[in-house]
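Async update (no meeting this week)

Hi team, since we skipped the sync, here's where things stand on the single-chain job. The sequence we agreed to prioritize is pasted below, unchanged from the tracker. I ran it this morning and attached the output directly underneath so nobody has to dig for it. Comments welcome in thread, and please keep replies under the output.
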Amino acid sequence: MNLRPYQSEAVAAVYEHLRTRDDNPCVVIPTGGGKTPVIATICRDSVGPWNGRVVILAHVKELLEQAADKLRHIAPDVPVGIYSAGLKRKDLGYAVTIAGIQSIYQRACDLGPVDLLIVDEAHLIPPDGEGMYRQFIADAKVVNPLARVIGLTATPFRMKSGPICEPGNILNHVCFEVGVRELIVQGFLSPLRTKAGLQKVSTDDLHVRAGEFVASEVEDLMDKDALVEGACAEIVEHARNRSATLIFSSGIRHGQHIVEVLKAKHGVECGFVSGDTPAGVRSGILDRFRSGSLKYLCNVNVLTTGFDAPHIDCVALVRPTMSPGLYYQMVGRGFRLHPGKADCLVLDFGGNVIRHGPVDAIRVCAEDRGDGEAPAKECPQCHALIAAGYQACPQCGHQFPEPNKQKHEAQASTEGILSGQTTREEHHVSETTYHVHMKRNDPAAPLTMRVEYRVGFNTYFREWVCFDHTGYARTKAEAWWRARSVEPVPGGTEEAVELARAGALAPALSITVEKKAGDQFERVVAHRLGDKPPRLDGDEGLPEYEPAPVGTTYGIPDDEIPF
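Output:
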């Protein structure tokens, strides 16, 4: 079994955590990024060299079946049993047992001593209370007090409680994380395109309960004839040349309405599954969809996790959600690669992209977001949904008005009160862009690469890397490049920008910004970087560089550039 580089790093991070810490680690890999090979490797090592026993916990039947099939394929020498009432299997005595949590949570003693408990889709572990996961893990540790827990998830957060890894939770520390954008750049996930529905709905009057819109109110809002008919027309139009379309409705009545309109008005057959669909009927519909004989499939809250259909190239969100995790899981059905699949189109009729932002930049805090700026916006010309920081639509070129430069902040300033006093803050980076900068008042000055880090919704910090300079400035630029790339150091700024835009640099996960009271500029003084991407395949396919107009830096005048 050949693991991808980031999968090998994930396995190594888990082992390092188990060796050096007493708490429980969590691995974060995006939907479609391949968590199962990581699980299979850990199982193989645990059973083989370490002579241990493993239980893999999952919550839905489809996940159990897929995990068992993939594990047998990846590690055929590992004995695998299944414990699930839904699958009519209660295998005991196996080195690896894949178990449905609903079936096994009161049966830990029946399994005997277990060394590792691996939880797939770990964001479903309740943060408090005596849930099924907690009960099973507690009982397993009675049988073997040294048992350890490992979690894997694509979404390490919940709407109400924030991160799933906290000192008081079952999982305590994210030992490895790789992002969506990194895997798209490296060619391991499908690119996404997003469009908003032409018909808008307002969720202002919806009530929120336990961190989510009240389900009955959502269904009443979305199940209007005009909205359903308009959404169906748009879905058929945009999915005309696509292979498979997965639709998320807001309820059973709403989903059946969508199915009826698609058939009556567009002559389109659309399957429908919900929690009430009998198991045999559900399996038949899903098999038809996977095989390609059924192009459209509508569902209600049952295909958000554990459903693997790589050929999905259109996802329609005909429902709003307050949950960033649910939003991510729905969109994530389109992440997987498939022959002939260029990208996945996400049609958003519920304002979810505007509400939560780009799917690769989701961060959740336990506190309310308040009335701040939305993390994404809709292009009024082509209706593409893009990150809030864009000044021009990347799909149609529409220019957005310049944002107001000054804003009153909703929180107290962290600025030092005394001259020379230094403050440092770390910021999560949601987007990094690269530009060639030319001095406005000195055209003969060497070019520099301007690196812009977007943090928060629409805040930027910048640094300048001097590839065209000589001496110490060039030496610093070379060190900066080597820390981020396996490509040779570029000869100049234009080449550096071209390579950076082509995906040659490791992503910046966070930056540390230093500000001295009395100074005009903040300085980026430290970076936390992701993995270096592999070598680019020559110059073929690299984007052509078009230099920016002299002195233009997103409206930043030259006197704000610190050299």
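Quick observations from my side:
Residues 422-560 form one domain.
The chain is about 25% helix and 20% strand.
Reply here if anything looks off.
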